[in-house]
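Problem 3 from the worked examples.
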Amino acid sequence: MVQDQQILLLVYNIQTGDKLEQYRQIIQEILTEHSQVKPVYGEIAMKLVFDRERDRYQLLRTGWQGDRRVFGALIHIDIEDGKIWIQYDSTEIGVANELTDQGIPKTDIVLAYHAPFMRQYNGFAIA
């Protein structure tokens, strides 16, 4: 009985690890695609930041538009407790839609930029 439980736990850990690795890869691919789109205004560079150890992923804009400094996140995603937390998304298509198109279930995606009490209405994970 104990050995069966240990085997099930090992299988669960492998599946969870594989899932997280798949999520990491998909997030990096999506952010990389977005980084290829250059703004039509100003001298602005798109910069990718991938912290796989802490599961933090960002696409930043840096540069100048005339005499105005441009700096900030276009997309910020974290992986926490096996779920993808979209902290910020200023894309038109919506990163959550791109993630679901890649087969990630809505139950594993949290729209963190929505207030916690509103998440129950968005069709994605609450937390």
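Problem 4, a separate protein:
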Amino acid sequence: MENILGTRIHKKRIEKKITQEKFGEIVGVSKWTIINWESGKRIPLATYLPKISSALGASVNYLLGEEDGFAKPHTDDGVHKTAGGEYSFVPIVVRSFEDMERLYNGLLMKELYKMTQEDELIFLGKHILKSKIDDSQPPFAVIAEVSCAGWGIVRGSRVVVNPAERAESMDVALIRYHNKFAFKKIHLIPDGSVELIAEDGKTLNIPAEENDAAAFQIYGKAICALSNIIHGV
């Protein structure tokens, strides 16, 4: 993915004539952490963004990819004040399908939402998510293993899934069938069965008796990727 956040931190730091060592002191991290942020090897946790914004005189909106480069008043809880009200950003942990299968097979699905400095994170504004968020099951992203051009998913893209948003018929969703995870369009049938539709049109029917958390589960609607997800027929 393009390292927009790191690139803009580097640009603004150079403009301010602040060394990496000094910037680290201001923000509360090491010089090497700053180097990793700017190179894209690591992404700052959301808790650092207010300090970064203040030190660089740049809004969080700008650092995350907006065009406005002027700083706006902020609070320390990730909520930024704008003329139109509040702008909130959401840190989203990125997982691979291998991660998902490892967590599921190890009965560790609660670990899915936990974030560490080692994890890859992306940041989205709540205005982009356009849906409610459940703090106990926050949005997360999964790295697409294959391209689904008809749905706007590119191989390697980070596909954001929101467990709090119910997937309806003909939505693209992250599903698990037994111990395998995949993105599929779902067709919810009144008899309790579910038809899974692949991007190439191939289908698989999940009978009603298997539509339970043991054999089959829908983890949430796919919200966005590197390009728009296309829902519907």
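Solution to problem 4. The chain is about 25% helix and 25% strand. The longest strand covers residues 85-95.
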